[in-house]
């Protein structure tokens, strides 16, 4: 595997960053998780935009343009002969001194890793997930805005640990007011009647790229798409529930905190969206091999 670091390619063993990089010392940096399907990078421009928004929010000047960043991703895929896989894009604050001051870091580092993807087992998609609400709440906007996809993922990691210790793969995270925010690495959706609902960004949801694609598909299917504040009560009494993310795509949820959702199996709206999403990934995206 060849890994891109600051314009050069390194083998796996030689792809290293300094122990003085503030990305490591303080989680000071931003990242993206992107998928390649069938020789194309899915929704690349949207991911690059979100990376730049995250960087702007933490006063991190990415040393490449949007176009150069897109080219770095596509080139890394090509060098690795990747047709289907997962791309991790990272921008760290760079090498500095021991001490928080980010202005001591001279140049941010850009890293691109293009690898095979570890998929959830097929059974989980067929049966649907059983998830729980965990005690760790989503970060406050006023502390660390959940819209920033920063290298500091401890908030989500703590929730993930609580999920796994509770025997589940994913967790519902509430915000400090008790409204549903999202899951540890996925956005959450419910349907009720002809409506598709997902928490607003103001509730602590990430501006998920898959979330946006699914909302567009649902509108095309004639569903009314809204972003209201949701409580656990709303989840328990939904017709259908599913999660979305670049890695997971669309995964049905059939139980939350011991309550069976709808009929206890993946519902018709969810199954339709799963098929439509799959079809879209096969035909759209930035070509790796023009
Ligand atoms: N919420 C959070 C907190 C995320 O990190 C999503 C939602 C889904 O967004 P996209 O744009 O992918 O539809 C994410 C992104 C993992 C992992 O290993 C998942 C993400 C990021 C990093 C790691 O599960 N998901």
Please characterize this protein's 3D structure:
With 290 residues, this protein is an alpha+beta fold. The chain has two domains: 2-115, Aminotransferase class 4, branched-chain amino acid transferase, N-terminal domain (D-amino Acid Aminotransferase, Chain A, domain 1, 2-Layer Sandwich); 122-282, D-amino Acid Aminotransferase, Chain A, domain 2, CATH 3.20.10.10. It has helices at residues 22-26, 44-57, 66-79, 122-127, 154-165, 209-220, 232-236, 268-283, and strands at 2-5, 8-11, 29-37, 40-41, 85-92, 109-115, 129-133, 171-174, 180-183, 187-192, 195-197, 224-226, 240-245, 249-256, 259-260, 286-287. Strands 7, 8, 9, 10, 11, 12, 13, 14 and 15 form a nine-stranded mixed beta sheet that branches. Strands 2-1-6-5-3-4-16 form a seven-stranded antiparallel beta sheet. β1 and β2 (8-11) form a beta hairpin. α6 (209-220) packs across α8. The two termini are 21 Å apart. The model has no long low-confidence stretch (mean pLDDT 97). 3-[O-phosphonopyridoxyl]--amino-benzoic acid binds next to α6 and β13.
What's the story with the biggest beta sheet?
Answer: 9 strands, mixed
Order of helices and strands: EEHEEHHEEHEHEEEEHEHEEEHE
Strand content: 25-35%
Distance between the termini: 21 Å
